[in-house]
Amino acid sequence: MFSFCSDPSVLEGFDWFACYLTSATHLNFYGAFLLVLVLLAVTAPAALGMGMLGALALRARFLPLVAVGKVYVNIVRGVPDIVFFLFVPIALGQGIEWMLHQVRCPDWTEPIRQGTDFLVCPEAKVPPNGSPQWLYTAYAFGMAVLAFALVFGAFVANTLHGAMQAVPRAQVETAEAYGMTRAQAFRRVVLPQMWVYALPGLSNIWQILIKATPLLFLLGLQDIVYWARELGGQKTSLFSYPHPDWRMWYFLALLIFYLFLTWISERVFAWLGRRLSHGQATAAGERMRKAAA
Amino acid sequence: MRTCWESFEAYAFRALGRDFGERLLPRGLDITFCDQVFLIGSGLMWNIYFAGLAIAIGFGLSVAVAMARFSQNPWLSRPASGFIFVFRGSPLFIQFFFFYAAFVLLPRSGIDIPLGFVTLTVDTSALTTAQVGGLFVLVLNTTAYSAELFHGALQSIPKGDLEAADAYGMRGWTKFRRVIFPNMLRLAWPSYTNEAIFLTHSTTLVFLSAFPARQQVGEAFYYARYFVDQTFNPFVAYPLVAAYFVALTLVIVAVYGLVGRRLNRHLPQTRRARFRFRPQYIR
């Protein structure tokens, strides 16, 4: 990074640390923090979308749809999530390859499960054989996002369903008295008002989502946990920057990163709660009205 | 191929160590369905060990931390809130890694703590094992989570009850033992049930990469992952471990339900705080 870093063995003190902390592997480590933020940024809307679909299914008037919603929410919530995070990517990957196998190689006669192997024809491989490395990484990342969205979608669906029920019944009845259809009343009355009721639950789920991101490591991605273990481990004099076992300090840095993340989001959600309570028929909204008057 | 009885003999107590059954775990094509049932089931005893001890130790500590947080003395409440924030605000997964890395750095021969008349030698090598070190982290973690619950309950103790205690001239320890503690416990019990469930579920994190599973001694999910790695088939071992955990959850709900009934026995049916299952597994 810096010009004086060309020969690390002669460096001392501050210069040594400046060069050490800007080495190529450390830049990868910092990139992994970005990966966590990207994962959060992608997963949160995906989970919100899944949750919205689930909540709509739960309040549908079509019975099979309600059943689908209930099964989804209860199965995901009833099973330890960690099982889900490991199960979904493998099961989904095998499921996709199995379906492609049925479509693309109908005359393949050998069984797919041979002993401990899962063998599909070469045309059904995802990503295709010989793809560049980044495609494999992107595929693994996509699977992880899907697993997160599935699990957290179920939590969100439950919260949003509760929030929709919590919108005062009189408001919906008023909308109906104005001649709005069910869909119109939902769009114009329930949807804008439900968020203040959903916010405490959503804030909780967001905190859990933040704390679930290190599980990416289990899916074989080179995330912050991976790099902290790699970089922190003892380095002999064969390396350009020899040092003893520093894993504790690396994991301390990760702890601080996560504490900062949860602290910031606590602040943001508190601010959002104040914004959303404005003019609402809730205790917080009433207090704000009185304070302003 | 082994019969079911043979795999029971070989693996039903394998989680206790190499000497309690087959030395090696079954591999590759040799794995039968019964092997998976019994080996995963034998791992469950470690889940119960971790959860049971962590809850038992954490309970006393968390009541103390909750009282400290509720106290008006900033020298008590600030550190207590800090402790709770650190352990609730960071992932348990990272906490395991951090403490393991810290324990490894301790001197292997043990630390001598001179107490004046006697010198206490702390066996630090035990801390790098999951059975002691992992339990230590779980205790700290559940202490923080339960302390937050108990703090919330302390805040919502009915004012009338406290005034009644004052009117009877109760003070200090008597007031705590007769009025504050039972009320706090009763109010926090539904959410404390959930905490016990989540803690049990999070015992699956103990052997995930930080603490080593020596002699392939691990908990249920460790064995489930072992089978999936061996057979590349997630559709047997993971549903099995999920089923075991659902059963364990039902047991916890039943036991805590009995205690909750006893805590609320003086109240009319309608005023009792009900337990609601609110899963929040990741911590």
- Widest sheet of chain B: strand order? 1-2
Gap between N and C termini of chain A, in Å? Answer: 59 Å
Largest sheet of chain A: 2 strands, antiparallel
CATH class of chain A: Mainly Alpha
Structure characterization notes:
The complex is a heterodimer of chains A (293) and B (283). By secondary structure, chain A is mainly α. Helix content of chain A is 71%, strand content 1%. Chain A has 10 helices and 2 strands; from the N terminus they run ααααββαααααα. Chain A has helices spanning 13-20, 24-58, 63-78, 81-104, 133-166, 169-177, 182-212, 224-232, 247-277, 283-292, and strands at residues 113-114, 117-118. In chain A, α2 runs antiparallel to α8 and α5 crosses α7. Chain B has a single domain (4-271), classed as MetI-like (MetI-like fold). Chain B starts with a helix and ends in a 20-residue tail after the last helix. In chain B, a hairpin with a 4-residue loop joins β1 (111-114) and β2. The chains are: A mainly alpha (293), B mainly alpha (283). The A-B interface holds A 77-83, 86-87, 90-91, 94, 113, 115-118, 155, 204, 208, 210-215, 217-218, 225, 228-229, 232, 245, 247-248, 250-252, 254-255, 258-259, 262-263 and B 28-29, 85-86, 89-95, 97-98, 101-102, 104-105, 201, 204-205, 208-209, 221, 224-225, 228, 230-235, 238, 241-242, 245-246, 249, 279-283.
Short description:
Chain A is mostly helical and 293 residues long. Helices cover 71% and strands 1% of the residues of chain A.
Secondary structure layout plus pairing:
The complex is a heterodimer of chains A (293) and B (283).
Chain A: H1 13-20, H2 24-58, H3 63-78, H4 81-104, E1 113-114, E2 117-118, H5 133-166, H6 169-177, H7 182-212, H8 224-232, H9 247-277, H10 283-292
Antiparallel strand pairs in A: 1-2
Chain B: H1 4-11, H2 33-70, H3 74-89, H4 92-105, E1 111-114, E2 119-122, H5 130-155, H6 159-167, H7 172-202, H8 220-231, H9 234-263
Antiparallel strand pairs in B: 1-2
